[in-house]
Specification:
Elements lengths: L1 H4 L1 E2 H8 L3 H9 L7 E2 L5 E3 L1 H15 L4 H8 L6 H34 L6 H6 L3 H7 L2 H5 L4 H10 L5 E5 L12 E5 L3 H5 L8 E2 L13 E7 L8 H11 E9 L5 H5 L1 H6 L3 H5 L5 H8 L2 E4 L2 E2 L20 H5 L2 H5 L2 H17 L1 H5 L8 E2 L3 E5 L1
Parallel strand pairs: 4-5, 4-7, 5-6, 7-8
Antiparallel strand pairs: 1-3, 2-3, 8-12, 9-12, 10-11
Helix pairs in contact: 2-3, 4-5, 4-6, 12-16
Bound molecules: S-adenosylmethionine.
S-adenosylmethionine binds next to loops.
Keywords: DNA-binding
Protein name: MerR family transcriptional regulator
Organism: Streptomyces cavernicola
Length: about 375
């Protein structure tokens, strides 16, 4: 154990498959500093340094620049588990892109073998926007503004002119007709905000870098359950804004068991995630407001977890699942089992039989709530 906790530069280089020169460079620029000493007094890597190096090397392999990596690994809102989850998502994304390129290359080889030349457009497609649209970064591809939910949120903002969007992600639900400031701790998400989106500050909900009452309103959409301390974050929103609007989920009842077939019949592990989530009463108390139910339209365009309640085939799509953290959080084994079970039941007609009442519904109550204060 002792040895594991203090590794020499040479040993770390050997284990990680990088040069000592690289490690020295990381040390010089402050990216990964060996913080321990060997018995002989030489600088050595402690367990925490190795963990940080592992994150740095993984982001490096994904193509991030060193400056960008420094911002990612220094982000106080992201712990080791959050880094691992994010890395996993990014790697899956990269794997999907590579798989799509292999398929495109196979097609071209086949075509050439049959004497058919692909057009210049076809050859370039695999590197361009079209590929990005189909298998690109999961989040922007499936998480869009749902206009009916947006209308509820914007109405709740009232006549607010200045709006703070906390946990803003790629900017869904940011009203275009108001003066918006976004707050987003994740560099990966910030990097995916479209050109022309509202200015975005790198910060966390729990510690908003603004004076009291700086904004007319603060909003938070599908983000509260990602915060390490939701109640502290909501109090911060309350502090910096006169009005608070939060779109979130009622985790306080066991309603998820009965109301959504996906968690009831395929993914009961969802219940374990809820155990850590604060109750709706705690959340509303933190902002001093009320909670209103938000029904999910059957053709909801924002691909959050419940969005496809009447389109069950969508959950078989890896890309749909990757844009929703629940699937990553329950673990690969539960995900595989749930997807296989659903696939079988769809093929056998069992799903349709069990959920035949849903066909008549245009919107469903699945525990989503708008908190307004
Ligand atoms: C599911 S996304 C929602 C993004 C956006 N609001 C939307 O509706 O598309 C959750 C977001 O919460 C952010 N987040 C995680 N922890 C946070 C924290 N402590 N404070 C603020 N945002 C946080 C994540 O980085 C992520 O962008």
């Amino acid at each position: 154990m002792e040895e594991l906790e203090r590794l020499t530069v040479g040993r770390v280089a050997e284990l990680a498959g990088v040069t000592v020169r690289t490690l020295h460079h990381y040390d010089r620029i402050g990216l990964v500093r060996p913080s321990a000493r060997t018995a002989g007094g030489y600088r050595a890597y402690a367990a925490g340094d190795v963990e940080r190096l592992r994150e740095v090397l993984a982001y490096r392999r994904l193509g991030f620049g060193l400056r960008e990596i420094a911002a990612l690994v220094d982000d106080p809102a992201t712990d080791a588990v959050a880094h691992l989850r994010r890395l996993r998502g990014l790697l899956l994304d990269q794997r999907d892109r590579a798989a799509a390129m292999v398929t495109a290359i196979d097609r071209e080889l086949e075509a050439r073998a049959m004497g058919v030349r692909t057009t210049p457009e076809e050859q370039l497609k695999v590197f361009g926007a079209e590929l990005y649209d189909t298998i690109g970064s999961a989040y922007p591809a499936t998480r869009r503004t749902e206009p009916r939910i947006a209308a509820r949120i914007w109405e709740a903002l009232g006549d607010a002119r200045t709006v703070l969007n906390v946990g803003a992600g790629t900017g869904s639900y940011e009203p275009r007709d108001r003066d918006v400031t976004a707050v987003e701790p994740s560099a990966v998400m910030r990097a995916q905000r479209p050109a022309g989106a509202a200015p975005c500050v790198a910060a966390s909900a729990e510690n908003l870098p603004f004076e009291d009452r700086s904004f007319d309103a603060a909003m938070a959409v599908s983000t509260v359950h990602h915060w390490p301390d939701p109640v502290a974050g909501l109090r911060e929103m309350r502090r910096v804004a006169r009005r608070v609007v939060v779109f979130t989920y009622d985790a306080s009842t066991t309603g998820w068991l009965e109301r959504f077939w996906l968690t009831r019949d395929y993914l009961p592990e969802f219940g374990e995630l809820l155990a850590d989530w604060p109750s709706l009463a705690d959340l509303t108390r933190a902002i001093g407001g009320r909670a209103e139910p938000v029904l999910v339209p059957w053709d909801c365009t924002d691909g959050f977890f419940e969005a496809h309640w009447r389109r069950p085939e969508a959950y078989l799509d890896e890309q749909v699942r990757r844009a929703v953290s629940v699937w990553t959080r329950v673990g690969a084994e539960a995900e595989r089992r749930a997807v296989e079970g659903l696939r079988d039941d769809l093929a056998s007609g069992c799903w349709a039989e069990r959920n035949r009442d849903l066909v008549a519904l245009d919107a469903a109550e699945l525990g989503l709530r708008l908190l307004v204060a």
